[in-house]
Amino acid sequence: MAFRRRHYKPAKHSFNPMALVLATGALVLTAGITTRLALARRQQPQPQAILILDGSDARVRFGAVFAGLHPDLPVWISGDCSGRPAVHQAFAAAGLAPGRVRYDLLATDTVTHFTVLAGDYVEREIRHVYLVTSDYHMTRARMIAALVFGSRGIAVTPVADPSNYPNEESWWKNGRDAARSLLWLGTGLTGARLNPRLQGGEQCRY
Q1: Domains and CATH numbers, the chain
Q2: Structure pTM?
């Protein structure tokens, strides 16, 4: 039985210049941040400050106790609810002098915890900070810190507050805030104004 030879045409692969540009940009960004973080850790292997992300009384109390164990380090607490009496009580109970604590009241969510402080840390030549937040929140916080702080040559050492929360945060939150961090790197905007909670004036829970 005779078989006819079939002739196959090679598949045509279209060149996508935009994909190449995006891939190249991602590689350059990753390499740049990695280099800056490595240099920051080499120049400043020990943290120079403590950053506490406000968000719950338990987290603030944990951060205050941790700060009490490092009396030589300045403390930042980020969150627009930092004037709550519970915050001051936690710091007083841990023996922290009022002048040692700097309150940043501009953050409205996790991304802006970092974007509003990055410039301040650069001006103060702070290259390495302890990052204090809840254990379930740490993955997202470190990811944002790697992009926002990392782009400015600021490294973080995580200090997680143990919680009863059973799981880490969703992939959706992580992906959303990664995109917002990249937006900030490119434009200086974070998209925080689109937060529906802020439309009604609520800026105290994130």
Answers
A1: 39-193 (3.40.50.1980)
A2: 0.80
